């Protein structure tokens, strides 16, 4: 069995391993001579403590291979089928847009694998919105629906146990989650309990034609390269995907009629550990992910006063204003405007980029845009590589002229 091992004959209880761990995954307890290190539930087997230990008392045992032959592994993995999508709902019981976006991509992955798409829908017993038919129309072959008041609150522990119980019984090959605040909390808990891998913030999902493995691509090393990750030995293969990365599929009423809704239960043992006393909603303007038209300002806009030019263009087009990370760091705009790897991913019908250089961290968040118009004084700006239309010129002057012509 895999895990962190501490040799008590070598451990001197110095505590250097505790300082090296960034996850509270190891502690030193006891009084000398019985003072030793041991792992906690926070250990992710990263190996930082192993490298730090001056006495070489710490090691990691992994059971990836064990005594399992390739034939036995192939037989074990073959028992896993279907692509699952966790359909998170909002406070009104309506499925978030990212659930439909994931169903669209899951439909394509399932076609390659020759399997089904299953949506996981958990709601309170009295939730006013019945989203199961909508999920079927978006591509799910089956919706596993659990109506239970314990799921009315987004308690990651309860949801994780619910998903793990179903996964243990039904054995999905792939589970996809939206990289929302709750999705990012839930998915790791499921991965730990199922002893499988998880790739966060993916921008590309594909199937390796040779192995059939899910290829999970995400920005790495601060966005300076794209890493493709696979999980060859464990199931299910799991990934979180930012909202706005994939396009939502067209509604298919015929597919909805062919699909089915299966009522499932939550085990009595799982009880919420969170009580919600009040909910404070963000203002309606604090959202750019749902904008059909988005004007994004970068450092090339020159100064804070020129943001008014970009805002007027957005207003004339009936859109919203976004920006790159440097503008947020300079205090010109609030964080919710930020587009990119460390901001939000967007998929507008039209995106106008003003003075944006086009670093990979930014482009990773705009891959879902249908049409991109990029304006930059530098003819070699990286942003032009992902633009539909390219304009070389002063972005402020171009924005002013475009606004004037649209108003006329």
List the helices and strands and how they pair.
Elements: E1 3-6, H1 16-20, E2 26-29, E3 36-39, H2 48-52, E4 58-61, H3 70-77, E5 81-86, H4 97-113, E6 117-123, H5 132-137, E7 142-147, H6 156-170, E8 172-178, H7 181-194, E9 199-202, E10 204-207, E11 214-220, E12 225-229, E13 237-241, H8 253-258, E14 260-263, E15 293-297, H9 307-316, E16 320-323, H10 325-329, E17 350-354, H11 360-363, E18 371-376, E19 389-392, H12 395-407
Parallel strand pairs: 5-6, 5-8, 6-7, 7-14, 8-13, 9-13, 15-16, 15-17, 17-18, 18-19
Antiparallel strand pairs: 1-4, 2-3, 10-11, 11-12
| Distance N to C terminus | 71 Å
DSSP summary: helix tally: 12
CATH class descriptor name of the largest domain: Alpha Beta
Helix content: 25-40%
Strand order of the largest sheet: 9-13-8-5-6-7-14
- CATH architectural grouping of the largest domain: 3-Layer(aba) Sandwich
Categorize the overall geometry.
globular
Strand content is 15-25%
CATH topology call of the largest domain:
Rossmann fold
According to CATH, the homologous superfamily of the largest domain is HUPs
Q: Could you give the count of β-strands?
A: 19
Largest beta-sheet characterization: 7 strands, parallel
Structural class: alpha/beta
């Amino acid at each position: 069995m895999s895990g962190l091992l501490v040799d008590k004959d070598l451990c001197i209880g110095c505590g250097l391993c505790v300082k090296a761990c960034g996850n509270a995954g190891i502690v030193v307890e006891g009084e000398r001579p019985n003072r030793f290190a041991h792992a906690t539930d926070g250990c992710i087997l990263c190996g930082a403590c192993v490298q730090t230990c001056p006495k070489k008392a710490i090691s990691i045992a992994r059971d990836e291979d064990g005594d399992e032959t390739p034939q036995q592994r192939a037989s074990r993995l073959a028992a896993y089928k279907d692509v699952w999508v966790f359909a998170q709902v909002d406070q009104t019981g309506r499925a978030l847009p990212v659930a439909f976006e994931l169903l669209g991509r899951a439909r394509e992955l399932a076609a390659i694998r020759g399997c089904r798409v299953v949506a996981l829908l958990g709601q309170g017993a009295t939730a006013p919105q019945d989203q199961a038919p909508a999920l079927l129309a978006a591509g799910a072959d089956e919706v596993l629906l659990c109506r239970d008041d314990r799921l009315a609150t987004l308690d990651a522990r309860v949801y994780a146990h619910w998903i793990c119980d179903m996964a243990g019984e039904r054995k999905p090959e792939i589970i996809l989650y939206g990289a929302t605040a709750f999705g990012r909390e839930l998915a790791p808990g499921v991965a730990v309990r199922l002893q499988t891998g998880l790739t966060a913030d993916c921008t590309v999902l594909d199937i390796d034609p040779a192995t059939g493995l899910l290829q999970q691509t995400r920005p790495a090393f601060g966005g300076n390269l794209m890493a493709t990750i696979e999980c060859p030995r464990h199931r299910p293969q799991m990934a979180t995907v930012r909202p706005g990365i994939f396009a939502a599929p067209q509604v298919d009423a015929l597919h909805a009629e062919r699909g089915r809704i299966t009522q499932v239960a939550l085990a009595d043992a799982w009880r919420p550990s969170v009580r919600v006393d009040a909910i404070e909603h963000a203002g309606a303007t604090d959202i750019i992910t749902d904008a059909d038209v988005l004007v994004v300002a970068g450092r090339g806009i020159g100064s804070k006063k020129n943001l008014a030019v970009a805002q007027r263009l957005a207003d004339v087009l009936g859109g919203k204003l976004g920006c790159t990370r440097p503008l947020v760091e300079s205090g010109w705009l609030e964080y919710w405007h930020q587009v990119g790897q460390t901001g939000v991913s967007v998929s507008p019908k039209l995106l106008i980029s003003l003075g944006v250089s086009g670093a990979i961290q930014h482009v990773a968040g705009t891959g879902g845009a249908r049409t991109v118009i990029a304006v930059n004084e530098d003819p070699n700006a990286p942003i032009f590589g992902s633009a539909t239309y390219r304009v070389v010129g002063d972005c402020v002057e171009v924005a002013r002229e475009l606004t004037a012509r649209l108003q006329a």
